[in-house]
Write a structure and sequence with these properties.
Keywords: Membrane, Signal, Transmembrane, Transmembrane helix. It contains four helices and two strands. Helix content is about 60%, strand content about 5%.
Length: about 140
């Protein structure tokens, strides 16, 4: 029996893409906004987070369409978790760990669900676009 070799390139790509996307969408905005009523929001705006999510859908869908579903979920989750940890670890309260944990769990759930949907939509797993053979 021939053993299948694992190609680490998709996992590496799907781990680095979230880090780069985080830096592009969220990494530059570190200031909280103080409103006239004294409330504080931020540092991110909703459009930045939406942009991050939409950007990451591309590599997740790409990997899932090529049947790298586990890689899509784990690579993206690992990259987002590492980026959040790096960005938020200077918080002196220590509560950043809860936020990082929530990012990890949410990204794992969402990327798993998106991968499952893509696999079910793209058919029986044939990459060449050929029709499945009829049962004999």
């Amino acid at each position: 029996m021939r053993q299948k070799t694992v190609n680490p390139a998709p996992l590496l790509l799907l781990s680095l893409a979230p880090v780069a996307a985080w830096a592009a969408w969220l990494g530059w905005d570190q200031q909280r906004d103080v409103h006239p009523d004294g409330s504080v929001t931020g540092p991110y705006e909703a459009w930045q987070v939406i942009g991050l999510v939409l950007t990451l859908l591309v590599p997740v869908c790409w990997a899932a369409a090529r049947r790298h579903t586990v890689t899509a979920a784990l690579g993206t989750t690992a990259g987002l978790t590492a980026a959040a940890w790096y960005d938020w670890s200077d918080d002196s309260s220590g509560l950043f760990a809860i936020g990082v944990g929530l990012v990890m769990v949410a990204s794992l759930l969402v990327t798993t669900a998106v991968s499952a949907v893509i696999v079910s939509v793209t058919g029986d797993g044939r990459r060449d676009g050929s029709a499945p053979r009829p049962a004999a």
